[in-house]
């Protein structure tokens, strides 16, 4: 069947994969864009899974400064070879992730980093709210589960919606580049700094201490 250049272009934008691969997927799916997206994602998952056991010890430490020095980001993005580390697509991925971190301010890299105490606190807040709203007891657990998924999506970097394309997560973005390059790519760690962060709180505490001292006298 005839596949239009417009459909190939749209599929490339939605998946981040190459032109020939997108065209082949559209042929396989009889021109259906949504089915082609699913088809390509399943293939990508299989390819990424095969690469998951490899060691990624090369890569880059990327820095990004935003807003005239108000926000700074450092991240370590790993790949398998120094050749890939110099690849334009790999460098573009590091830049995009750093930009996302600056904008979205994630608290954790992955779910594994979330403290159990924080999770229990969020669950308790969600449960109390659901009960206060009069939700039936039998659906409260489902509501809490949904709230926790939302919590992960908002706070965990890999699960956040990519700021430049909310149709995909940051993890999806990494998987796309992994598929295109053909090497294992992992985001190992990141740090985000914002000018003045925490200072106001310390000033407030100091003000409270002074107030107590004055009251005591």
TrEMBL record:
GO terms under cellular component: cytoplasm
GO molecular function, one term: translation elongation factor activity
Listed InterPro entries: EF-Ts_dimer_sf, Transl_elong_EFTs/EF1B, Transl_elong_EFTs/EF1B_dimer, Transl_elong_Ts_CS, UBA-like_sf
Domain Translation elongation factor EFTs/EF1B dimerisation: 48-197
Transmembrane parts of this sequence: none
Domain of life: Bacteria
Main subcellular location: cytoplasm
This protein's record includes keyword Nucleotidyltransferase: no
Pfam families named among the record's database cross-references: EF_TS (PF00889)
Cellular localization per UniProt: Cytoplasm
PANTHER family: ELONGATION FACTOR TS, ELONGATION FACTOR TS, MITOCHONDRIAL
Record's protein name: Elongation factor Ts
Species for this entry: Acanthopleuribacter pedis
């Amino acid at each position: 069947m005839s596949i239009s250049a417009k459909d190939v272009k749209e599929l490339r934008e939605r998946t981040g994969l190459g032109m020939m691969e997108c065209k082949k997927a559209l042929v396989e799916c009889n021109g259906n864009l949504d089915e082609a997206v699913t088809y390509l994602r399943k293939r990508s998952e299989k390819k990424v899974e095969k690469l998951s056991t490899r060691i990624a010890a090369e890569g880059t430490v990327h820095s990004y400064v935003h807003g005239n020095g108000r926000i700074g980001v450092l991240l370590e993005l790993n790949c398998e070879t120094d050749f890939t580390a110099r690849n334009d697509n790999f460098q573009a991925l590091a830049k995009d992730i750093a930009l996302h971190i600056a904008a979205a301010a994630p608290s954790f890299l992955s779910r594994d980093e979330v403290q159990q105490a924080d999770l229990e606190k969020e669950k308790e807040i969600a449960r109390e709210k659901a009960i206060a709203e009069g939700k039936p007891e039998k659906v409260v657990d489902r509501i809490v589960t949904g709230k926790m998924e939302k919590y992960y999506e908002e706070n965990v970097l890999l699960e956040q919606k990519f700021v430049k394309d909310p149709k995909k997560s940051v993890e999806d973005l990494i998987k796309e580049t992994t598929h295109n390059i053909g090497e294992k790519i992992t985001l190992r760690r990141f740090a985000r700094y914002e000018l003045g962060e925490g200072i106001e709180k310390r000033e407030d505490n100091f003000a409270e201490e002074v107030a107590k001292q004055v009251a005591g006298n």
